[in-house]
Amino acid sequence: MMRKVIVVSDPPAPGGAVLPYGGYVVWRERQRTGWTAVFFALTAPAAIACSPGKSIDVFFDRNSSRVSAEQVSRLASWTAMLRERYPNRQSISMGANAEEGERDPQGLAMQRARNVARILDEGLRFSVPTVALPTKGNVYPAGALGKEDVKRVEIDFLPACPHECPCRTEGGEGQR
């Protein structure tokens, strides 16, 4: 499932909290909106639409853009599954993240994304017609995403048709 961000309120101020919920990240204020807003946001029709996208996060050590052997192994398993299930590939998009306090966090986040893209292309020979690298890295305070590690590259893969969701044809009808 592609990572989606649903904004229920403004990003957390001192009274706010970040709640991880499956593939969603929900901003919630500890005021009158409470859990009702979270419930309605997560049960909205867009949240249950079919999405053929697949995602994985590649994690990094502090102040490092080196992709560890463990993370390369995870990527290899993930790409092997994608090759088997989706012989037709459309695109990959990436998000680059670093933590406040890391050395040159913007530059480090971008170098992380370039290193992951290089491993996918040259090391694992996983090619797609379109690879969207970020134009800017995201910098988060430590713990900003709850228990998730912010020192990572987020990869979203979109298969080309056919896949498990109905595909649109020129006539507007879906096919499987």
Concise overview:
With 176 residues, the chain is of the alpha/beta class. The protein has helices at 34-42, 69-85, 105-123, and strands spanning 4-7, 16-21, 24-29, 54-59, 89-99, 130-132, 138-140, 152-159, 167-168, 174-175.
Structural class: alpha/beta
Strand percentage lies at 25-35%
Which fold name is given in CATH as the topology of the largest domain? Answer: 60s Ribosomal Protein L30, Chain: A
Main β sheet profile: 5 strands, mixed
**Shape by Cα distribution:** globular
Mean of all residue-level pLDDT scores: 74
Task: Output the keywords.
single chain, alpha/beta, 60s Ribosomal Protein L30, Chain: A, five-stranded mixed beta sheet, three-stranded mixed beta sheet, 26% helix, disordered N terminus
What does this structure look like?
With 176 residues, the protein is α/β, with parallel strands linked by helices. It folds into two domains: 1-49, no CATH class; 50-176, 60s Ribosomal Protein L30, Chain: A, CATH 3.30.1330.60. The protein is 26% helix and 29% strand. The chain has three helices and ten strands, in the order E-E-E-H-E-H-E-H-E-E-E-E-E. The protein has helices at 34-42, 69-85, 105-123; strands at 4-7, 16-21, 24-29, 54-59, 89-99, 130-132, 138-140, 152-159, 167-168, 174-175. The strands form three sheets. Strands 4, 5, 6, 7 and 8 form a five-stranded mixed β-sheet that branches. A three-stranded mixed β-sheet has the order 1-3-2, with helices on one face. The protein has a two-stranded antiparallel sheet with strand order 9-10. The two termini are 18 Å apart.
